[in-house]
């Protein structure tokens, strides 16, 4: 059984998580490198691993949640194909994007930031301007239906949007842009 979320953490519901991975083509997940931002319990990244992703990195600021993610990875036997970064997402992206070395772009980025954070556009803008994405990357973002995200965010272009009660999910593809 996966560990619980701390107070104030809103895990992606099973219904929304299932919908996301049913909408994504299997080849977008199988063998992919996944980045789970605002990871919470790690449910989105762990779902990707369970569907054949080769690797997942998790970024979460809350130290208690980082421990929960690590426990969930150990429970699901995915700790050897993953890393947990306990850091602020925007700070982590700044540091991770500029360091040379073995940093391979991610095939799939999933993020479901806290609604209290407000609109996730600044995170998507930072992501779109980073070296974390390749020309074939897909970005999936969860957000409140009360928020309107732009169809284009730098080199990210919305290819689908779905609503599930108060939850909305946007699917973005990368189109040509300079990093």
Give a structural overview.
With 179 residues, this protein is an alpha/beta fold. The chain folds into two domains: 27-104, Rossmann fold, CATH 3.40.50.150; 116-179, no CATH class. The protein is 30% helix and 30% strand. The chain is built from six helices and eight strands, in the order ααβαβαβαβαββββ. It has helices spanning 14-23, 26-29, 43-50, 63-75, 89-98, 121-128, and strands at residues 33-37, 55-60, 82-86, 106-111, 133-144, 152-153, 156-164, 167-174. An eight-stranded mixed β-sheet has the order 3-2-1-4-5-8-7-6.
Provide a concise account of the structure shown.
The chain has 179 residues and is an alpha/beta fold.
């Amino acid at each position: 059984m996966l560990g619980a979320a701390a107070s104030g953490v809103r895990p992606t519901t099973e219904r929304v998580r299932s919908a996301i991975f049913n909408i994504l083509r299997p080849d977008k997940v199988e063998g992919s490198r996944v980045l789970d931002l605002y990871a919470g319990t790690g449910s989105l990244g762990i779902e990707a691993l369970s569907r054949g992703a080769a690797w997942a990195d998790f970024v979460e600021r809350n130290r208690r949640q980082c421990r929960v993610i690590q426990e969930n990875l150990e429970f699901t036997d995915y700790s050897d194909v993953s890393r947990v970064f306990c850091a602020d997402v925007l700070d982590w992206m700044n540091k991770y994007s500029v360091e040379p070395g073995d940093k391979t772009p991610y095939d799939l980025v999933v993020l479901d930031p806290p609604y209290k954070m407000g609109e996730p556009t600044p995170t998507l803008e930072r992501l779109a301007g980073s070296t974390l994405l390749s020309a074939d990357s897909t970005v999936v973002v969860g957000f409140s239906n009360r928020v309107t995200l732009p169809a284009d965010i730098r080199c990210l272009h919305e290819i689908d949007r779905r609503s599930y009660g108060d939850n909305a999910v946007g699917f973005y593809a990368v189109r040509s842009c300079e990093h």
